[in-house]
Amino acid sequence: MLLATLRHQDRQRAFSLTAREKEILSLFAAGMGTAALAQRLEISPVTVRNHAQRILAKLGAHSRLEAVARAYALGVITPNILANANMSLPA
Q: Going from the N-terminus, what domains does the chain have, and what CATH number goes with each?
């Protein structure tokens, strides 16, 4: 019962991610770092880090890698999202 409650809470937090946070999370999953993400989205690296911190907090993760893994497990990130992110990565 406790495990089911925790999973439900994880899903609620994961699905409370904003569209921009999901976009950034999918680009993290595609392997982009802070500087490349900032350049691609035309925002400052500080803004990328701020988004990353909110993503980590919402997913209860301690690293970007853990956040990506949790988001994938919860269905926030799908293979289609990752394929779309990879297709449009700069060369």
A: 2-87 (3.40.50.2300)
